[in-house]
Design goal:
By secondary structure, the protein is mainly α. Helix content is 75%, strand content 1%. Strand 1 and strand 2 form a beta hairpin. The radius of gyration is 21 Å and the shape is globular.
């Protein structure tokens, strides 16, 4: 916040810059309140439920407004003022993590079974949402995320018989559903969008432009939220790192990266000490969260930054939170 305030003074458009500074303060206050609520067992439940409601609302809104929401343009990607594929994907990412987490820590064996089944149900749901939103990003993130979690939690410790059964179930499911899956994909906007090269994606051009502007203004940038004013596309870069570089210079990028690196470092130390599935899930969450920042600007969105705060607090109480289910 302090560095944003400094760079706002030298901004290309000071008025826009200070509006962004105020927004940064709002994000900080939101995360502070959310952190306070997350530290208490009963209120932390409401934080988690709020995010789950947001996700359910995303699914409902996209399904009932798909013809209105699907903006068929150069990117063939779902976007409107109320919902876009990025936020949809990040809420899905959080729900995946949270359901997986509940499947580990729940005291009740019945609850564990239910959440583990829900976790596997999220696999086809992720594919459906990727088709619904025409988002390559969802598949790019969810597929390796599921693969890593399943490998560590189920495959790594499983005996030969369990592995054989899992392979058999996967093979049978693919055999019966392959034609339907391929047909659904080929007739979707996602298939059309996938024909576009990544380098031809407007967001790649925005990221390059933001990086070049950052190189010309490496210390203070052009001012908070000012990149979109001088960009030929008049849009933000859809990348937290180059957006910070262009708007507030290299020091802002370093501060943000140090924050994410600290989260990952804490989770790595915990996993390195215990080598348990809970610690590993937090470590992988941190790595994927940092990677997700390549595809969207997180630091000005209270709900996206709130996810990191909530999970961070959850990790500091990993053996207590929500275990009474």
């Amino acid at each position: 916040y302090i560095w944003f305030l400094i760079t706002a003074i030298t901004a290309y458009n000071v008025e826009v810059a200070f509006i962004s500074v105020k927004r940064t303060v709002a994000v900080f206050l939101f995360c502070y309140v959310l952190s306070y609520l997350s530290k208490k067992y009963h209120t932390s439940w409401w934080v988690a439920i709020t995010y789950l409601i947001f996700f359910i609302n995303c699914v409902y809104y996209a399904q009932t407004h798909i013809l209105e929401v699907a903006d068929i343009n150069d990117s063939f990607r779902m976007t409107d003022e109320k919902l876009n594929a990025n936020l949809f994907g990040y809420f899905l990412f959080f729900v995946t993590f949270f359901v997986y987490h509940l499947g580990i820590i729940s005291n009740s064996q019945r609850a564990k079974t239910i959440f583990r089944l829900l976790f596997f149900c999220l696999i086809p749901l992720s594919f459906f949402i990727a088709l619904l939103t025409a988002s390559r990003q969802i598949l790019l993130l969810q597929v390796p995320y599921f693969a890593i979690l399943i490998y560590y939690r189920y495959w790594k410790t499983a005996n030969f018989l369990v592995k054989f059964i899992l392979i058999a179930i996967t093979f049978i499911a693919c055999a019966f559903l392959a034609d339907h899956i391929i047909e659904s994909y080929n007739t979707s906007n996602l298939a059309t969008r996938s024909k576009v090269q990544v380098t031809d994606d407007p967001r790649a051009d925005l990221a390059k432009e933001a990086f070049n502007i950052g190189l010309k203004n490496p210390i203070f940038g052009v001012g908070p939220d000012n990149f979109k004013l001088i960009s030929r596309h008049h849009n933000f870069s859809h990348n937290s790192y180059v957006e910070l570089f262009a708007n507030s210079g290299l020091p802002a990028v370093i501060i943000y990266c140090l924050m994410l690196a600290r989260f990952i470092k804490v989770q790595y130390r915990s996993w390195h000490h215990k080598h348990d599935a809970i610690s590993f899930s937090f470590l992988i969450f941190g790595i994927f969260y940092a990677f997700d920042n390549i595809f969207y600007v997180f630091y000005l969105n209270p709900w996206l930054m709130g996810i990191l705060v909530f999970v961070g607090d959850l990790s500091s109480n990993k053996h207590n939170k929500f275990s009474n289910i």
